[in-house]
Task: structure prediction
Amino acid sequence: MATILEARDVCQYFGGLKAVEKVNMKIEEGDIFGVIGPNGAGKTTFFNICSGIFKPTAGEIIFRGEPITGLLTEKIARKGMARTFQNIQLFKYMTVLENVKIGFHIRTRTTMLSALLRSKRYSEDEKFATEKAAEILERVGLSEFRDTLASNLPYGIQRKVEIARALALDPKILLLDEPAAGMNPSETQELSDFVKKLNAGGLTIVVIEHDMKFVMNTCNRILVLNFGQKICEGTPDVVRDDRNVNEAYFGKGLVVGEGYNNA
Ligand SMILES: Nc1ncnc2c1ncn2[C@@H]1O[C@H](COP(=O)(O)OP(=O)(O)OP(=O)(O)O)[C@@H](O)[C@H]1O
Ligand SMILES: [Mg+2]
Result:
């Protein structure tokens, strides 16, 4: 398997705060790769570097064999990286279908002018986006919410809409920042099955999550950050038994392996 996303000695400093400190990571095509660590460990910052929101203080990000460090987010998205956000970023007063259609804009050629003039290209792109968005909603089981305003949906469903919109980019890799937050245990289990299904369809997935049962049951490899540094990387079994990881979590009153393999 080829490496799809690599971080080399990546650092992100905010003034004197070392939010991410010399992190190295290799994600192989086909992985479901977990990123875990206590609050403030640097997980979201690391995602922000990978997806181009932050230009790192030092280090390099390689995506599909090409350095992408410091490129604009949109350019990185076009190269095949999509993500969701820890704080849901949907357009609240748009319907679910409209939110997903936005994900297509990066793939279509419509300019503002052709949209205003309602040109032929605009109509074609609109039709394409509507059909494809409907297809994605079907695929992720959200068709019944197609015409519902995003703000009227429960939190768990909003998270799925964000994933649907990211899928509209037709990415090679999908970064999910705490997708199970706000979900109940059965929704979380459903999400795990869904992530595995997307992965089986050829998508590499990177997921930040606090829910240990989800992480241990869904990911094949896990990176553990603590105070910005990598303290462990390996299979779920290796991570669960690692002393540093357990200390980092015990310090915060958490237990890494707790109930992770219960049904
Ligand atoms: N834009 C920023 N400016 C200054 N400090 C920041 C910025 N973004 C993050 N930080 C700080 O960097 C550290 C890492 O934050 P980050 O959000 O990456 O943690 P996290 O692992 O995602 O935590 P959580 O599990 O709570 O989401 C924190 O101390 C945070 O306050
Ligand atoms: Mg975070």
The chain has two domains: 1-80+171-255, 91-170. Confidence is low (pLDDT under 50) at residues 259-263. The chain has ten helices and ten strands.
